[in-house]
Amino acid sequence: MPSAVVKSQTPADSKDTWRTPPDLFRAASYRYGPFDLDAAADHDNHLCDLWLGPGSQIGEDALAVEWGSRIVDKVRRVWLNPPYSMNKQFVAKAAEEAREGRAQTTLLLPATTDVRWWHEFVEAKPNVLVELLSPRVRFLRPDGSLAGSPNFGSALVTFLLPSVSEMLAMWKPRRGEKTVEFKIKNNPLVKEMTRLAELKASAFRVEPEVVHG
Asked: Which residues pair with 131 in a beta bridge?
C-alpha cells in the first residue's frame, strides 16, 4: 500500500508571513553577519534597523531596488527570510546582488533541493554556501507565537560576492591544521574570507537564548 502523503494544513499566504526564530537569527548573524539589512520584512517584524517591505522608508518592493553598494571595503550583509510563495524571485534577486558586487545575502529557505530554482541558482554554484539545518526550524506565527514543526527542512543559503568566492577558491589549509592562508594580501576582503573559510569546517549551531532573572 502506498504511504500517505502528509500535507501542511497551514494556508500558503500565512506561511509568507512566518517569522524567523530569534535564536536562529542570532546564530546566523554571528556566523554570517552582522546583518545590516532585512530584505523581506515589515514595520512589525523587521530584524535589522534597515529593512525593505511594506512601510519601509527605503523601499517597499525589495525586488525593485538595489540592496547594497559597490564599496570594496564594505561588504553589505543582507538577511532574508522570503515569502515562500516567491522563493524563486527572491533567490534570483540575491544572486543578482552578489553577481553585481552589491551585497552578500544569507537566505533562510526550504530545503527543497528538487525544485528548478534550487538547481538554477544554488546547486553546485561556486559562490554559494549551503547549510542544511537540523532539527527542522519551528517558525513564529505573525502574532509571535511558536508554530509547530513544519513538514519540510530548512537551509541557510549564502550568496557571496564574486571577489569573495574567488578568494575562497584559493583557500588551502596547511596539512593537519585548520588555519587559513591566502595568496592575496592587503585586500580589504581578506579578513571576511578568512572568517568564511574557517566556517566551512565548523558546524552551525543554534543556541537557545539565556534569560537571566
From this structure: 156
Q: Which helix (H) or strand (E) holds 105?
A: strand 104-110
The residue with greater pLDDT, 198 or 39, is 39
The secondary structure of residue 153, as a DSSP letter, is -
Does pLDDT of 2 surpass 50?
Answer: no
Which of 5, 10, 193 lies closest to 85, judged by CA? 10
On whether residue 141 sits in a domain, the answer given is yes
Q: What is the DSSP letter of 51?
A: B
In a domain, 60, yes or no: yes
Report whether 68 contacts 102 (CB < 8 A).
Answer: yes
pLDDT of 155 above 90: yes
Three-class SS state of 158 = strand
Say what the pTM is: 0.74
Among candidate residues 172, 159, 176, the one with its CA nearest the CA of residue 198:
172
Q: Does any domain span residue 178? A: no
CATH number at residue 60: 3.40.50
138, 21 in Cβ contact below 8 A?
A: yes
